[in-house]
Amino acid sequence: MVEVAGASDGLPSARLRSQYSSGWTGLLCHPFVREMAAGALALEKFRFYVEQNILYLHEYAKAIALGAAKSRSRALLGRFSGSLQQIVDTELDQNQALLDRVIELGAIDRGG
Fold first, then answer.
1. With left for phi above 0 and alpha for psi between -120 and 50, is residue 58 left, alpha or beta?
2. What would the DSSP string read from start to end of the chain?
3. Closest CA to 86 of 106, 68, 109
4. What is the pLDDT of residue 1?
5. Which residues have a Cβ under 8 Å from the Cβ of 87 and sit 6 or more positions away?
6. Measured between alpha carbons, how far is 63 from 72 in angstroms, rounded to an integer?
7. Are residues 77 and 68 in contact, defined by beta-carbon separation less than 8 angstroms?
8. 1-10, pLDDT tens digit by residue?
9. What is the pTM of this model?
10. Which of 14, 47, 92, 98 is close enough to 107 for a disulfide, judged by CB 3.0 to 4.6 Å?
11. Residue in 49, 61, 109 with CA at minimum distance from that of residue 88
């Protein structure tokens, strides 16, 4: 059994982890997460994960942009634009660099 850290600190995230501890434990015990934590995840699996994350980030950025376009206040527009900027200027580049590095290390393309 995996202990749910911080369940008694009163934060909403801690309350949710405590309330749904079996689901949280299931996530932490997933083979992908366990193999990654142990440093035993096959490069091909990690490459596939990063490739899928890049695809997701492109679509997520579009959804965030749509939220910005539909914003009804300047504050909300600022939140959406900040998130969009983070994705476009940082996360996509970081994920691409990570993918490039995994390929350099020899990860074979499995169609991700």
1. alpha
2. ----TTTTS--HHHHHHHHTHHHHHHHHT-HHHHHHHHT---HHHHHHHHHHHHHHHHHHHHHHHHHHHT-SSHHHHHHHHHHHHHIIIIIHHHHHHHHHHHHHTTPPP---
3. 68
4. 46
5. 57, 60, 61, 64
6. 16
7. yes
8. 455 455 556 7
9. 0.78
10. 47
11. 61
